[in-house]
Amino acid sequence: MAKKNSRTGWEIPATEAVRASADTRVADLDTNVTPGFEGDKELGERLLEERGADLSALQEKLFANGRSSEEHRSVLLVLQGMDTAGKGGMVRHVIGHVDPQGVDHASFGVPTEEEKRHHYLWRIRKALPRKGQIGVFDRSHYEDVLVVRVHDLVPPAEWEPRYDEINQFEKDLVESGTSIVKVAMFVSLDEQKARLAERLERPDKYWKYNPGDVTERGYWPQYQQAYQAMLDRTSTEYAPWHVVPCDRKWYSRLAVTELLIDALERLDLGWPPADFDIETEKRRLAES
Amino acid sequence: MAKKNSRTGWEIPATEAVRASADTRVADLDTNVTPGFEGDKELGERLLEERGADLSALQEKLFANGRSSEEHRSVLLVLQGMDTAGKGGMVRHVIGHVDPQGVDHASFGVPTEEEKRHHYLWRIRKALPRKGQIGVFDRSHYEDVLVVRVHDLVPPAEWEPRYDEINQFEKDLVESGTSIVKVAMFVSLDEQKARLAERLERPDKYWKYNPGDVTERGYWPQYQQAYQAMLDRTSTEYAPWHVVPCDRKWYSRLAVTELLIDALERLDLGWPPADFDIETEKRRLAES
Questions:
Q1: Does residue A111 lie within any of the structural domains?
Q2: Which residues of A touch B206 (CB under 8 A)?
Q3: B78, β-bridge pairs
Q4: Residues above pLDDT 90, as percent of chain B
Q5: How far apart are CA B189 and CA B192, in angstroms?
Q6: N or C: which end of chain B has fewer CB within 10 A?
Q7: What is the C-alpha to C-alpha distance for residues B44 and B8, in angstroms, rounded to an integer?
Q8: Number of domains in chain B
Q9: A143 vs A8, higher pLDDT
């Protein structure tokens, strides 16, 4: 759990401050705030480095246990958010703190022809984190109740049962040892406009620009509705949603770092014990 | 290419200083040296951070092109070395500088039952980097001419043709757009003993210790012979080996950073041009 003191800047631990509740109203969200955190950007950025190092230390323990134990333990970070919310930056600046060997990263775009021939969870199951790994989903199975719902890509009778199905899927995952950290990232319509405009100004950002992103802006209320339904129906005790305001990138990155640290600390992992006789091995090594 | 001036500490660019040649003698290697580099550890560690940032910038360009171009461009780092040579640390401290989204990491241990039923390159092909990615192989297809040869896991008539087959495999890879950076990492027998001893002293390192590692020390001359044959027969113009002394971890990490930077610079990538009309999009965005 995030330490509660002035040094850390957190007045309320991130896990509580951004946890979705029955009162969460997507349409009313202020995305330019820093829930639970009283510090400024400078403190936030310094803390991100410090806590990134803590995250890295915890990840190594997870990895060590993955190598040494038969038990499956893994952490899955699910990132959902509108374009420009900062999913890519989140991976770079948060997951970038940990050993690349310990990360199973997957991003989910428009399904390929092969993926379309399968159940929507097919590509998700294939990408789940291995034992000892931190998995990262840049978009996820939630696309199948977001873009799919907004654009009527399948009829309601088809997407409607998915909420329950996803809950069951995640319940099974958690029971088999995967801690799920779900993060819904929100920017305002204005902030999105500013970020898209920057991509049109800078030749090193053109590749990130997609004309379809502007088209999607026309569906903002429908997306808000779909996000609301997602939070209402799939924020569970075993896999709650976290609603992270993302206009201030430094805050969103720090908050997600705290969420991951919390998930790892809850695993309460120690270093794996030696599965060999230490003195015997010291002797063998000395003689070698 | 590494900049040649006093600030960088490189008197000879890393790419030249560690490139395997017909004169390379594995049995005579001094592993406690810093070929081409005149600076000390302090400078080396500072440079690693600076050049790590350069590597990260180049990786982003590779990634951008992977997203925007039909052409396949990728870089594959192949790490081979005896236990404790520092392959894991190399991934953490060198590849750790780049965006995790842009890394396809794979490690190759003892083949699984399924892998054993296939050609030895089967598992390798499956793990090749995707377009725009930096692939990292922690061990590789070279295991099939190293441990396999040392322990007679298959008869000579079977491993002998593999050198040529690997060369052809890598030639095809390079021709289809993958730059291969092959790094053979060497520590001395004494340094290995010290590193294994540390694993037996520290409970946070037990998980890295494997009694088999001591057994393998008994085959040191045979491994040297197998590494020699590997260098002699598979260091090609299109995929040369680099022989990196690894007793000083800071040096080996800096050298490999330079090798990767060199490989990326040779691709001579620009930012992908806009594949949309910029003014039209600015108008659309403003109106959205």
A1: yes
A2: 271-274, 278
A3: B137, B182
A4: 96
A5: 5
A6: N
A7: 9
A8: 1
A9: A143
Q: Which of A101, A193, A196 sits opposite B91 (nearest CB)?
A: A101
> What is the C-alpha to C-alpha distance for residues B275 and A189, in angstroms, rounded to an integer?
24
Does residue A24 belong to any structural domain of this protein?
A: yes
Residues of chain B positioned with their CB less than 8 A from the CB of A88: 99, 101
Q: How far is A126 from chain B (nearest CA, A)?
A: 14
Q: Do B101 and A138 touch (CB under 8 A)?
A: yes
Range of the domain at A195: 14-283
Q: Are A159 and A144 in contact (CB under 8 A)?
A: yes
- CA dihedral A105→A107→A113→A114, nearest 10 degrees, is 20
Listed in sequence order, the residues at least 6 apart from A51 whose beta carbon sits closer than 8 Å to its beta carbon are A254, A257, A258, A261
| CATH code for the domain in which residue B174 is found | 3.40.50.300
Q: List pLDDT tens digits, range B156-182.
A: 999 999 999 999 999 999 999 999 999
**To the nearest whole angstrom, how far is the Cα of B11 from the nearest Cα of chain A?**
31
The whole-number average pLDDT for the span A111-116 is 95
Q: Does residue A4 fall inside a structural domain?
A: no
How many CA atoms does the CB half-sphere of A157 hold within 13 Å?
Answer: 0
Does the pLDDT value for residue A239 go beyond 80?
yes
What are the φ/ψ torsions at residue B43 (nearest 5 degrees)? -65, -40
What letter would DSSP give residue A141? G
Q: What is the pLDDT of residues A242-253, one digit of tens each?
A: 999 999 999 999
DSSP output for B30-95: -SS--TTB-S-HHHHHHHHHHHHHHHHHHHHHHHHHHHH-SS--EEEEEEEE-TTSSHHHHHHHTG
The ipTM, to two decimals, is 0.92
Quote the pLDDT of residue B97.
Answer: 97
User: For residue B81, what are the β-bridge partners?
Assistant: B185
Quote the tokens at residue B25.
């003698």
Scanning every residue of chain A, which has its alpha carbon at the shortest distance from the alpha carbon of B211? Answer: A281
